[in-house]
Structure of Cytochrome P450:
Amino acid sequence: MEKCEISSSQLESSLPYPSSFTSVILCVITLYLVYRLFRSLREKKDDGRRYPPGPKGLPLIGSLLDLRSDVLMKMKRFADEYGSIYTINLGPTNLVVLNNKDVIKEAFVTNAACMSHRPQVMFDTLKQSQGIILKQPGDLHRKNRNFLSTGFRMIKLGVPEFSYHLHPHIDNFKDKLIASKGQPLPICSTSHRLLFEIFTDLMLGEVPDPNSEKVNKLLDILYIALSPNPMLALVGNLIPNWVKSALSDWIDMADCLAKVTRYLKEHIHQHRETYEGDPTNLINAFLHKEKLELEKTSKLREESSSGGDSDTEIEKAAIGTSFMVNDQEENEKSLAAILLDVFQAGCTSVVASLQWLLLDLAIHQDVQDKLRMEVDRNVEQRNQRPSLLLRSDNFPYTKAVMLESIRLHPPAPLGAPHCAAQDTKLAGYDIDKGTIILPNFLMALQDFNQWEDACDFRPERFLNEDGTLATRETLGFSIGPRQCPGKLLSNTVISSILTDVIQDFTLHLPPDHNFSLKGNPGIIYNPQPFSIIAKQRTS
């Protein structure tokens, strides 16, 4: 059994212990929820509207105690009882949970204009409102997404040359597999370090020092920040600070995110002092774009100096679709928030996806053999490293394996909460303005009405009869305007690691290993710690 290279107290703190959770609830009841709930009850009128069904829960606290542990299993039971859409009461907060693809698509695509907002409780809990994930829909959100897409293109994401960014890190990972000499290698710490190095290189243009105390603390923060019980995270702002400080298992997500943000801002300042015009990482891509925008503004100002245009009008004309303004500090704040999304959510979700994929392949040797045959065939035909060939259509089985692994183990099974911006209808039910909408991707992706043998690992479901990749809508990266903007990055990184490793190694579970397919119940859905035996191929 693997032991992560993270302190036991930190790892334990990521798991929701019922006793501490109960203490939290009791304190919340006593100090805050009573007032909030009775006030809401006085204001609520029985106007005959039809709301989604759901568990009644307890007075004052709703279903919080039911969800104090094993959240995903409890929510599955609710779905089995109440259907594709149901309501959970979390004290003063009502939560509508969506459990199949059709109702999720209705909410986030058909009704996207109303249901693409983020709930205020997220801003209150995380103390963040910028970037992409937490930004409310609108012009700035669109500009932030556009900038990230531009930055990705500037560092060559989407073309074969991008793999050269990844090769040194993948080679280092393969060296660790070789050094293990056929002995069980802990995948939790090894994969987390690998992806941390890759994302640091892509964003900051540097390889982190593995012996740096500061770097290792940041790695720990990234690991634990998204590990809390998601239901506790939703009501975290209601818990008094003195209660939080008394709880051994409380994780202050806002503090974690603030520390990562400070780290990113330090590097933005350093890059600004040394940048020489080569956008090989996301910070330099930002500085390059900022330079172009300022030059454009200056040129327009010169051309219109006799035209009487105001500075504001000139800047608007120059900036166009950019989030940048003529304020260096504000620009850096926006960039830090965007990088935080990529670093925190992107890195941790890719780690989870890679861990599940390696576990799936170690369990299903027949799938691993078919995948290796496809890799070998492409390498023999083109005499290139497999990660350089992934842009072709010659890896349908590889892509099917990745899709199937993410279907069974979505890295963020409950996604990010949405919020109804106005009173609306969903699946025939009334939804009040301000209601939190939570997609249960894990339920939707294992829905027996949508997927045959839904709980089986069967990549062939994503292939046509002729072996080409089938077009099947999946929800692993959400859907609609809030779909994850890092989907291409995630798929590229994982497929590059996967094909390069499978070319050189066979992966096995230790003979005495009791693996589990039950993930850790955090915001990010990691597998239980496990080890793999990597045997180097001789031919």
Q: What stands out?
A: The chain has 20 helices and nine strands.
